Structures are given as C-alpha cells and as structure tokens.
Amino acid sequence: MEKDFIALMAQDRALIEAYLSKAFASESRCADLQEAMEYSLLAGGKRIRPILTLETCRLCGGSPEAALPFACAVEMVHTYSLVHDDLPAMDDDELRRGRPTNHVVYGEATAILAGDALLTAAFEQITRAELPAGRIVEAVRCLAKAAGSAGMVGGQALDMAGEGRALDRGELELLQSLKTGALISASAELGCIAAGGTQAQLEQVRAYAQALGQAFQVRDDMLDVTSSESELGKTIGSDQVNEKSTFVSALGLDGCAELVERLTRQGIDALSGFSDNAFHSWLAGMLAQRNR
C-alpha cells in the first residue's frame, strides 16, 4: 500500500512540476524577474501543499487534473512566502532547498519583486481552472484569506513581534496556526472546492488539515534542532539565533513528539466520514515521521 501511495505522490508531483515549468514561459522577460521567480518556484521541494489539493479533490469525488490550477496557485503562494521569509529583514537565511536563497543570487530588490509577482500570479492561475465560476470565486476567497493578514502574513507579523521574548503556548499555537497552518488548511479546502464538495465534507477536510498543519510545524521545530543542513537543505538553528519561541522551547523534544502523535491521530479521525481516506491517513503518518 505504501508503495502505491508513494507512486501516487510521484504522479501528482510530475503533473505539478510540468504545470509550474510552463507558468511563465510565454511571458515577456522583465530584466531578471521571471528568472528569479522560476529559480525559487522550480527548486523542487516536497510539494506537499499542491499534492494535498489534488488528492483532496479526488477524496471529495472530483478530478485531480481539474484542481491543478488551484494546486499550483497554492505552491506559488508558498514559494513567495519562502522568498520573503529568507530576506535579511525577516529570517536572513542564505540557504533554501539546498542552494543559495533568492536574495543571495538576485539581490534583495529582485527577490522582493519575485515574491510579489508569484503572489499575484497565484490568483491568475485560479481563474484558469475549467470549473464553474462559483467555485473559482470561492477558491479566490479561500486562498486570499489564508495568505493575508488573517492568515499567513498575520502569522509572520506575530513571529517577528515575538522575537526576543518567550511566548506562552497559546500565543505560539495562534502564531503557527496562521503562519503555517492557514495555507496547509487552504490547500485541502481548495481541493474540496474544486470537486464541488459539500459543506460537511469541507468541514471535515478543514479539521484534518488544521491538525496536519500544526503537527507539521511541531515536527519542523523538532528538525530545526535535531537535523542537519545537508538533510533539510536549509539553515538550521536559526530559530535559536533569532531568539524565537518554538514548540521545542515550550514543550521539549519528548513533549513535541507526543503532540505530533496526538495531532496526527486527531487529523485522521476527522476524515472518518469518508469511505476511502487511506491516502490522507498515510500522508499524515508519513509527515509525522519525516526527517526533512
């Protein structure tokens, strides 16, 4: 069964990579802007968010191919957030996905513009989906909310404001539910929207993805302490250097491991209303044990 799921992820990833590789191919080149956008967008990565969109569309009875523009829009937003997170004014990181960060290669100004362009391009991609207009409008609303001040950007603002002081667990959970969890939740919700899922399905998918998103972040905090740059492909230990509160600093490694296990089970249980949730259950377990 695991081999089947790994093969399914590889199939989804191939669809995503092919779509992304052509996203800006027909555009007129504006200095090195498009090159900088593609440098980060096509740098690989796990593609968990767009895969989650495609497979949630399948889970809710839709065609994954129909959800491809939604899935790639999510990945563009995610990539923009990484480009901006790495900037000197934010986390000041020099390594991402095993190679120099965007601003190191292209300079800060171009990196900012590349991020801006990826964000706006995401919403253009959503409008290209061959789906009913109502679903497209709902998808725009969903992604905009997850990416903006009530979601990812709001979480980043809390993250920056929290540097140099200890956050309590409630503050930390709010921060990460916005910074990381909102976009992961939107990834799954967009798949349900693309499929024309019911409100009940949407609520179950959201509950699953929110638990998955928190578990993902807790595991990420653990890896920032226990892993290496060669394994992760990015700078490690930056949270400590930047004096940021993390789940590890709040709960310790053992407490984090217990929380990841509990959240993973909570997410899987949320999908009990679906007759075939095997892939999503496997994905949650795989992410909980990941080493990079």
Written description of the protein model:
With 292 residues, the chain is mainly α. The chain has helices at residues 2-22, 33-41, 48-59, 68-85, 102-106, 108-127, 133-147, 152-161, 169-195, 199-226, 229-232, 238-241, 247-270, 278-288; strands at 95-96, 99-100. The protein has a two-stranded antiparallel ribbon with strand order 1-2. The chain is globular.
Spatial strand order of the main sheet:
1-2
Query: Radius of gyration from the CA trace?
Result: 18 Å
- End-to-end distance, in Å? 22 Å
Secondary-structure element string = HHHHEEHHHHHHHHHH
Put simply, the count of helices is 14
Tally of strands: 2
Low-confidence blocks of residues: none
SS-based structural class? Answer: mainly alpha
What level of helicity do the residues show?
Answer: over 70%
> What's the shape?
globular
Largest sheet: 2 strands, antiparallel
Which band does the percent of strand residues land in? under 5%
> What is the averaged pLDDT score?
94
Brief digest:
71% of the residues lie in helices and 1% in strands.
Write the layout of secondary structure elements.
Elements: H1 2-22, H2 33-41, H3 48-59, H4 68-85, E1 95-96, E2 99-100, H5 102-106, H6 108-127, H7 133-147, H8 152-161, H9 169-195, H10 199-226, H11 229-232, H12 238-241, H13 247-270, H14 278-288
Antiparallel strand pairs: 1-2
